[in-house]
């Protein structure tokens, strides 16, 4: 067994632990959390949570920063979030929840943060609308912004070249675990989320990844993307 295989097994073992998986899933909201907060989510003691979190930090999956007497943990990268979302897509859909099958559309399955971009029914609908209006176009595992899209994003206040220059994926397809279709991720997806939060089209909820779409947001998404949600 080579070094790569050994490293792969070590990372897989870290993710397989129930408590660590729950804490990682809760960190998918893109915010930082203390060991105490994460211990409550995982239903374990703060000391046990700290031990688990230290292993994830050492593996480069999480990063930690100290503020006063508290340590705040976040996912180390967008790639770590992508791995967690991808694992969730392996779960079989619950056929008995809705007439058409799949998860019931409420809470995080309707609209949520997937690390730093929009996911759920709303996230997929926004992406589908961007594609339908030929503002972005699928290209392999990514999206490209069309000439028409460059003008549209510019009119919405996006600095496309600045976003493109970031040291991360520009516009990536992220397979949505609840919708089983891709939503927009990467630097462009993150910028889109920041835009709708700044304009109060959506609001984050406390201690949850759920996004609340405001009345203004529904109206603006209809006006800008002809999207009814």
Low-pLDDT runs of 5+ residues are 95-103
Total domain modules: 2
Helix content: 40-55%
Overall outline: globular
Set down the secondary structure blueprint.
Elements: H1 3-16, H2 18-26, E1 33-34, H3 35-42, H4 46-58, E2 62-67, E3 70-75, H5 78-88, E4 112-114, E5 117-119, H6 120-132, E6 136-139, E7 142-145, H7 147-155, H8 160-164, E8 172-175, E9 182-185, H9 186-198, E10 202-204, E11 211-213, H10 215-225
Antiparallel strand pairs: 1-3, 2-3, 4-5, 6-7, 8-9, 10-11
Helix pairs in contact: 2-3, 3-4
Describe the model:
The chain is an alpha+beta fold. It has 2 domains: 74 residues, Winged helix-like DNA-binding domain superfamily/Winged helix DNA-binding domain (Arc Repressor Mutant, subunit A, Orthogonal Bundle); 145 residues, no CATH class. Helices cover 46% and strands 18% of the residues. The strands form 5 sheets. A 3-stranded antiparallel sheet has the order 1-3-2. Strands 4-5 form a two-stranded antiparallel ribbon. α2 crosses α3. The longest helix has 14 residues. The protein is globular and about 50 Å long. The termini are far apart. The relative contact order is 0.11. About 4% of the residues have low confidence.
